[in-house]
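Submission sheet (multi-component)
Chains listed below:
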Amino acid sequence: MINAMLDGLLGLTSGLTNLHWSNPVMILIGSILLYLGIKKDIEPLLLVPIGFGAILVNIPSAGLMEQEGFLRTIYEMGIATELFPLLIFIGVGAMTDFGPLLENPKIFLLGAAGQFGIFLTIGLALFFGFSQLDAVAIGIIGACDGPTAIYVTSKYAPHLLGAVSVAAYSYMSLVPVIQPPIMRALTTQKERVINMESQSQPASKTARIVFPIVVTVAGGLIAPKGLPLLGTIMLGNLMKECGAVSRLTKASENEIANVVTLLLGISIGATMDGRSFLNFQTLLILAFGFIAICLDTVCGVLFGKLMCFMSGGKINPLIGAAGISAYPMAARVVQREGVKYNKFNFLLMHAVGANTGGQVGSVMAAAIMLSVLQGMGII
Amino acid sequence: MDNVTFGITMIIVGMGGTLLTLAMFSLVMMLLKKIFPMKESEGKSQ
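Outcome: structure written.
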């Protein structure tokens, strides 16, 4: 009888006795993520479930990430199968207005330049001794696009998923802090005050409907490995532009996106077990993620300067910074910086064009990367 | 494949491929606007 009671009491202490030093640290980190999401309003839709997931998975003996644990079930269902990021992409496509980009298609090129940081960071990560697939996962933080980063990492470097996701979402929300100093350092006063003419060639409804179909087919033929990413974002956009399936469009951008964001967040948090998360490698990944976004901004602004030169000074190079995928935050940063130097300069629509170009650019960059990896026989 | 070859290939083919693909999309957009120009009724509604 007494033995049975002692055994029962031991069962109540198993959480404490199995506590590893890293677990309380991770519970603290999870709490910081919750604080940033709740009090500082930094990507709350993701940081709250990620933070809570990190706390849950660091309570020992609960077995939430073991074979039949509920977090493992969610992870296997949506992350391991890559379903969650793709469902989010349908919502992203449904929420994105490619109108400003279609009005001024040349700006699309800025969306390519804004992805160069991905590839440069891959080189850097390789230099620091990361394996090829790990370097790819680290580089993709430079896409400034959470679902793309999760899609690539969960497929080719799932052990880095927690660090890469936290880096991707954290730096995305820090774009208003990271970008302005780089924009100022790389442009002259004369360039910053360039007044861009308003766009005067809106696209017809038919062109807007045909655009996602053509891009899906052309992009899919060029980089078939990335077709799930490109196809889902373009499906969402087609639904929005055609106007024939408004119920599906609304469901994609609201109900589906919300449910999937919750499940995605909590299952990312569940990958942050202290024993595997707290190491020097995680710190390096966070540092490389920061470098990747800085390099994206540098390349975008430098390409903007090139376009400014080629156009005879008609393009304000500041809009190059919006070539990254953080939509619409990067476009707002450009507008704010532009107005600082010329209060009659409204760069917002041009920057939104570059920003949507960056969204397609990040997806295409990931698609091309995966297809190149396939071509080289690495995946 | 060694890391140097892999890294250089990724940088050149990745950056070049992304730029060329988006340049192609840009041309596609211009073409679409020519093939499907804005109708007068659409212009008025906007």
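Remark: Chain A touches chain B through 48 residues (CB under 8 Å).
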